[in-house]
Amino acid sequence: MEEYVLAAIEKGIPEICFTDHIPLPDGEDTEHRMAMDELEPYLEKIAILNRKYREISILAGIEADYVEGYETYIKEFLAGYHFDLVIMSVHYIRHWQSEQWVFNFEYSAETIPQQYHDYFQAMHKGIDTGLFDIIGHLDIIKRPGFPVLDTNRQDVEKVLDAAKKKGMCIELNTSGLRKPISEIYPAIEIVNIAIKKEIPFTMASDAHRPEHVGYYFDLLTNHLFNYNGLRMAHYNKRKCYSHLLAPQEIE
Ligand SMILES: [Zn+2]
Predict the structure, then answer these.
(1) Which residues surround ligand 1, an ion (CB under 5 A)?
(2) Residue 225 maps to which CATH number?
(3) What global pTM score does this model have?
(4) What separation in Å is there between the alpha carbon of 216 and the centre of ligand 1?
(5) Nearest C-alpha neighbor of 85 from the set 34, 17, 30, 171
């Protein structure tokens, strides 16, 4: 964790939020997430790092999977800790056969637009619980050659409207640039729709290694200055503060 903080300081990033994956009931899927007994040490470590590195703000967050049927579990879990922010991610769909992760699926029982639809339906349900602050990697389901908006614009619009209603933000996640899809989550066309709906954004590199911290942030930020009305958000103790991204001053 300290290496992530040092990487952020080195890149001149003023704030970093840890968002490890939420433990699931009965120790499910510990391969991809922390176990319940790792949570307290995780939060403690964040507090220690905060005291040690005054030059950067270090937030305590969590990436919470939304899985249908886990609503009560997630609600009770989140009520038990003081997080600064909670990301909602849909990583798998309840009725899909097991091991069908949304970022790596081969689910031949449905067409790709139908799979996209399932995914956004699950996301919509998650948003409606009102348990989360930020939508993580919104279109991670997308497959190269099958732009989501071509077939599922209505699903995306509905999800964005629901997020707006709940006062949620959307993550601009650069990890897609490290993957075959080679574009951010969500696609810039979806970012444009969200800007029109006045939904604020957060920046995420979805770092799974220290060298991922701030991945392509410089380029993305420069690009974002071209979008009028884009709001960036900041969180503290699950309160959202957003501001317009001001155009860069040219000297
Ligand atoms: Zn994720």
Answers:
(1) 89
(2) 3.20.20.140
(3) 0.94
(4) 18
(5) 17
